[in-house]
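User: Thanks for the earlier help. One more: Cupin domain-containing protein. Can you show the sequence and predicted structure together?

Assistant: Of course, both are below.
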Amino acid sequence: MSKQPRLPDCEHDPAGIDGVTWNIMGQVYTPKQYDERQFVWHATFPEETFVPPHTHPGQDEYLSPLDGDIDVIIDGRRGTVRAGEIGHLPKGKPHAFFNNSGKVVQAIFWAEPAGELPALYRRIHNIASPKRVTEIAPEYGVVFAPPVSAAAEPKPD
């Protein structure tokens, strides 16, 4: 059996760029390609993990599950992106995604343009508090919806 030739211009290291891997709210993100036009990362979603509703005012985001399904909500509409499909999360539209599949799901995500997303992931790596992540994210061009608990908080006069 002959070995398939490797593409000379592809990254063959299973680790990310410069060996980087990030823990983003319990999910593992591995950066694969980055320039000002786009940012591509591999994501491992443990079962029952999710990314809460958020908006990228200046970026389109895409996802393609490699195995399993990822449930999405885009601008209030529910859907499912299945293995091998490509889901488009348009800039300026609030969206969220959920692993309700009952197993770990691997997926490829990318954002166009890259914007400050890699810097955001570096900053929020290993921060377990979703509240803290939502406070930091706007500095990098990502706006999370207020948590449900915010509905019960008293409004300032």
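User: Great, one quick takeaway?

Assistant: Residues 117-124 form the longest helix (8 residues).
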